[in-house]
Structures are given as C-alpha cells and as structure tokens.
Give the backbone structure.
Amino acid sequence: MSKTIISPSILSANFMNLQSEIDAVEKAGANWIHIDVMDGHFVPNISIGIPVVKSIRKNTNIFLDTHLMIENPEKYIENFIEAGSDLITFHYEACENKIVEIIKLIKSHNRKVGISIKPKTEPEVLFPYLKDIDLVLIMTVEPGFGGQDFIHDCALKIPTIKENAPDNLIIQVDGGINNLTAKICTSLGANSLVAGSYIYKATDYKKAIESLI
Ligand code: DX5
Ligand code: ZN
C-alpha cells in the first residue's frame, strides 16, 4: 500500500512563529505543508495569500500544497506558482465552466493540479477530469474555518472517486481530521490527510502525526 501523505494545515499554526511552526511539523514527519487561501467571497473568511507563500518558499524546501478557496482562481494561479506553490488545488464550485483551461494552465507550469469539492457537491462531477489531474481534495467540513467537526457522509465520496480514478490519483481529505477520522478516510481509500487543529493544538506534533497514520 502506498504511503499516506500528511499535510498539516498552517491555518491553525501560530503565525507569529510561522517558520518554527513549519520546521517543527516537518521534523515531526509531515510530508507536505497545506496552505489555506481564503478570499472572503468563496468562503466567509479571509486568511493568507501570495506574499506568505513567497516567504515560506524562501525558508523551506518542503512541498507546498496550496488550497485555493477563492473565486476566479485562474486570475491568481500564476502568482501562486511564481511564489513557490508545488501543488495548486482549486475548487470545482468556483469555476465549473473553466476547469479544463485551469488544469492546462497549472500543468503548463509543471506544477501538480488538484480539484476540491465542498460537502454538498457530488463526486461524479469530477469524473471527466480524473485522468488529467494529480489530486482530488474531498472537503469533510464546509470550507472556511479550522476546528470544525468531520462530516461523516463526505467520506463516502472517497470510494466513488477511487473506483473511477487512475491508480496514481492522490485522494486527499480536509476538515475535522483526527486520529479516529483519519482511519475512517484511509480505510476508504484516502492517501493524503490534511490536519490543522489536531496537529497544531497538540503538545507533541510527532505523536499527533504518527497517530494519523
Ligand atoms: C478549512 C481548511 C482546512 C482547515 C482544516 O476550510 O481548508 O484546511 O485548516 O482544519 P481542521 O483540521 O482543524 O479541521
Ligand atoms: Zn484546506
């Protein structure tokens, strides 16, 4: 079985000490860093953006998993790539009619491409794109905030995607992931876990990360 990719979300990190917060999770076994970008339109919250990605890139070599929860993602994708994002995940709901061109845009810069769906979006909408992308991100909470409860029904989308996807597609889940919900998701076929509050609120990041696998 392939290894589970652990991607701590820095949304729950202490932003005053971002460098040490990132170094600490990397040392504790994180594979990627998950960066939640929110615009106050696609989701009812505002978080961080391009300059922060740039600063992080200058100070670490870890793979930067960038989750764009923004309207019109195509306007900003090249800025995020230039800033240092390795993977750009955008939302299906933000650009239903522009999916093919956005995939092409990201691929033209040799970066990995992911598409995310919110809890109320059916997984079947992604079927036409599965062979052309690297990752599907299944939201297991309504996007916008860390620390929410896992929505169990969303995990049932994992096998639907897996059964219809090429073997190398990464299936990532995000929202309410802890030691128990992580196991539910991996047993259903997820191979990448985003966790924000569960890792960053823990006193021992290493133990928290190990308990997810
Ligand atoms: C929510 C974000 C998540 C968030 C997860 O909109 O996409 O990445 O940080 O936080 P937890 O793990 O606390 O649910
Ligand atoms: Zn996220």
In short: Residues 6 and 193 are 5 Å apart (CA to CA). The chain has a mean pLDDT of 98.
